[in-house]
Automatic annotation (TrEMBL):
Name of this protein: Catalase
Native source organism of the sequence: Mucilaginibacter rigui
PANTHER family the record matches: CATALASE, CATALASE-B
Region named Disordered: 1-62
Similarity remark: Belongs to the catalase family. HPII subfamily.
Length: 739
């Protein structure tokens, strides 16, 4: 067996461990490489190392005879195959991962002693897994859902996992309700319908009985639930955590990830189409971006709140259904994460990584958020089943980059060969090793929070304002974003069969915003409930006093928060955006080359789409390679479209129903559209041509997002600006394009 196939022994300080300690910045990659097998140029063996001569025929009694039980090669291969599957994650089953690095801009030693946040020279390896929540492992990426955003930092003080979501709040306040929430959103138990969707009775039944979910429901029905790319989502730690400095002083903290490409979404109609055309859309986008060197980047943001300010807010910092508005506590950008390497093996890395928000390092600690506290139990517990026993921390992707020594032993699939007689502490036979570590030397000590309390199953009154922040979120949205929330709720509740549930949900919406509720009621053909019929909180104990559990209203100090609207995001780049060039034989080659060069120079990915694959012959006889035919490509897989010139080409496109459909759909989904002057007749064949001024020009570019011109440099620059806008949402109304 070659050296690269020999895993190093865990728990013993090997030469590799020493090498890693000396080169921490490359440590995880180097460690994984030791476990990575590469079959290039190698012989084929059985698992016991026997060279295989015939991998095509099983051993038989005669060449037409029965297969012999003796065939250990057949048995080994089939047995391994039979046991290839492990249980998928009970939530967040569908995910995509990537490796990267994190570096802090300036030392944060004034608030935390966490070494990876103190040393500006150090690059900490990370592995990130993005996920949807409700769907199974093979479900579509474009489900309307929350996205998981789990980051593992392989620090020199052990693994730190920031297991967050792309929304800053959650549906419930207490971990005890999590199984109920998930049972409600997962496919219904009698017929396992629907897959990866919240648009069904059990979800809305539960939500309409739990007013504490109101704020998160607004987020889940917003465009945040339909990211354009995993690279264009924010991330949030959700709970309030603690940072601890060297002197033991604590501050509260909220963690954020801010994507450098901005926060962008797709349209719901588009999402549903993508789910059919390319259910791996997000996974592919992340993979392709990293392969092409367009490394996704996020800045780590911190909202730091001094402990003495704990009660200064009109909500409870421990309540995970509340966010801290950025207007009250600004987000400080303290470092950058770059994802720069795709996994070598999906199962070994993305599937086997076992995140846990209980993986912390000195300088970071928990708060008493009751959702956080329950999560501290859940992750290891579920991983014991998912990964088949207690030794999953020895799986390469889970191993910390620092050596591990303790007295835990044995169990299924133990890898480490622990030397010596002692596996207990204290011991005198083994020098009392391994030794406990003093706090001053990096030993972990929990934050000594003072607690004086009775044991009881209760929630503080400060958790009962269920609607103010839901309203704050809704009020902070742009008009198109508000329309999308109305449409999403009308869609989801429209799929609910039980009218009483739709009606009850309207009562919840009414308490958030009457205008919102009225519009949804209109779409559903229902009336708003009278004040006396507004739904009560049903999440109360058997002996609970309903009055005590009622939602209450605290007058929030701010009515709007600009940070909550995606309309205010960065719109200055087209890096890694996908642009389609529609063309056919007889194209004007120069216009294609000019536009393609310009877009590519700006970092976009350009594909030529034509009636057939292969090559097209341009007017000047040049051969231009076609990336996809109209049969294979679809506008929903692109951010913008350009129609090339050339008399014959545009005549073909005008008569090509798929080309016209491509443009109609791009218009419907509010994308930037540009066409060479020659191609006006192709635009004229679309439904939206009547929306365009008779001689539309550059002046109409930014509000209409449709450009016609000579494909020269000025034109190309305008097109780039239009694509950077991401979408022209105002176009949605009036609706011009049929479904
Ligand atoms: Fe999780 N969650 N969760 N969760 N969660 C899991 O752990 C759980 C919650 C989140 O890519 C599970 O290994 C409970 C909030 C992510 O591997 C499980 C509660 C947030 C991932 C679990 C919550 C999250 C998980 C399933 C309520 C955002 C995927 C498989 C108390 C801050 C991690 C697993 C990955 C996964 C339990 C609520 C984020 C069952 C009990 C809030 C990103 O342990």
């Amino acid at each position: 067996m070659s050296k690269k196939n020999t895993p190093p022994k865990l728990g013993t300080e090997t030469a590799i461990d020493k090498k890693l300690a000396a080169q921490p910045e490359n440590s995880k990659t180097a460690q994984l490489a030791e476990h990575t097998a590469d079959a290039t140029g190698e012989r084929m063996n059985t698992n016991t190392g026997l060279n295989i001569n015939d991998d095509q025929n099983s051993l038989k009694a005669g060449d037409r005879g029965p297969t012999l039980l003796e065939d250990f090669i057949l048995r080994e291969k089939i047995t391994h195959f039979d046991h290839e599957r492990i249980p998928e994650r009970v939530v967040h089953a569908r995910g995509s991962g990537a490796h990267g690095v994190f570096k802090v801009y300036e030392s944060l030693s004034s608030v935390t002693k966490a070494k990876f946040l103190n040393d500006i020279e150090r690059e900490t390896p990370v592995f990130v897994r993005f996920s949807t929540v409700a769907g199974s492992r093979g479900s579509t990426d474009l489900a309307r859902d929350v996205r998981g955003f789990a980051v593992r930092f392989y620090t020199q003080e052990g693994n730190f996992d920031l297991v967050g979501n792309n929304m800053p709040v959650f549906f419930i306040q207490d971990a005890l309700k999590f199984p109920d929430l998930i049972h409600a959103v997962k496919p219904e138990p009698d017929n396992e319908i629907p897959q990866a969707a919240s648009a069904h009775d059990t979800f809305w039944d539960f939500i309409s009985l739990m007013p504490e979910s109101a704020h998160m429901v607004m987020w889940a029905m917003s465009d945040r639930a339909l990211p354009r790319s995993l690279r264009m989502m924010e991330g949030f730690g959700v709970h309030t955590f603690r940072l601890i400095d060297e002197a033991g002083k604590a501050s509260f903290v909220k963690f954020h990830w801010k994507p450098l490409l901005g926060v962008h979404s797709v349209a719901w109609d588009e999402a549903q189409n993508i789910s059919g055309k390319d259910p791996d859309f997000h996974r592919r986008d992340l993979w392709d971006a990293i392969e092409s060197g367009a490394f996704p980047e996020w800045e780590l943001g911190l909202q730091i709140i001094p402990e003495e300010d704990e009660f200064k807010f009109d909500f409870d910092l421990l309540d995970p259904t509340k966010l801290v508005p950025e207007e009250l506590v600004p987000v400080q950008r303290v470092g950058k994460m770059t994802l720069n390497r795709n996994p070598d093996n999906f199962f070994a890395e993305t599937e086997q990584i076992a995140f846990h928000l209980g993986h912390i390092v000195p300088g970071i600690d928990f708060s008493n958020d009751p959702l956080l506290q329950g999560r501290l139990f859940s992750y290891t517990d579920t991983q014991l089943t998912r990964l088949g026993g207690p030794n999953f921390q020895e799986i390469p992707i889970n191993r910390p980059i620092v050596p591990v020594h303790n007295n835990q032993r044995d169990g299924f699939m133990r890898q480490t060969i622990n030397k010596g007689k002692t596996s207990y502490s204290p011991n005198s036979l083994g020098n009392n090793d391994p030794q406990q570590v003093k706090e001053a030397d990096g030993g972990f000590v929990s934050y000594q929070e003072r607690i004086e309390a009775r044991k009881l199953r209760r929630r503080n009154k400060s958790f009962f304002d269920h609607f103010s922040q839901a309203r704050l979120f809704f009020n902070s949205q742009s008009d198109p974003e508000k329309n999308h929330i109305v449409d999403a709720l009308t869609f989801e509740l429209g799929k609910v069969k039980t009218v009483a549930i739709r009606q009850r949900m309207l009562g919840i919406l009414e308490q958030i915003d009457k205008g919102l509720a009225t519009q949804v009621a209109f779409g559903l053909g229902l009336h708003l409930p009278a004040k006396a019929d507004l739904p009560a909180n049903q999440s109360i104990p058997a002996d609970g006093d309903p009055a005590e559990y009622q939602s209450m209203q605290v007058d929030g100090s701010i009515a709007r928060s600009a940070a909550l609207s995606m309309a205010n995001t960065i719109k200055n780049t087209i890096k890694s955006r996908k642009i389609a060039i529609l063309t056919a034989d007889g194209a004007n080659a120069e216009s294609i080359i000019n536009i393609k060069n310009k877009l590519t120079a700006e970092g976009a990915v350009v594909e030529i789409i034509a009636p057939r694959q292969g090559y097209i012959t341009a007017e000047n006889d040049a051969q231009i390679e076609v990336d996809q035919s109209f049969l294979v490509a679809a506008s929903v897989l692109f951010d913008a479209v350009y129609v090339a010139g050339g008399t014959n080409a545009v005549a073909t496109l005008e008569a090509e129903a798929n080309a016209v459909h491509f443009l109609n759909e791009a218009f419907k989904h509010c994308k930037a559209i540009a066409a060479h002057d020659d191609a006006k007749q192709v635009l004229d064949a679309t439904y939206f041509s009547k929306k365009l001024p008779p001689d539309y020009s550059e002046d109409t570019v930014l509000n209409e997002g449709v450009l016609l011109g000579d494909a020269g440099n000025k034109f190309a620059n305008l097109f780039v600006k239009m694509i950077a806008q991401h979408r022209f949402w105002e176009r949605e109304k009036p609706r011009l394009i049929p479904a």
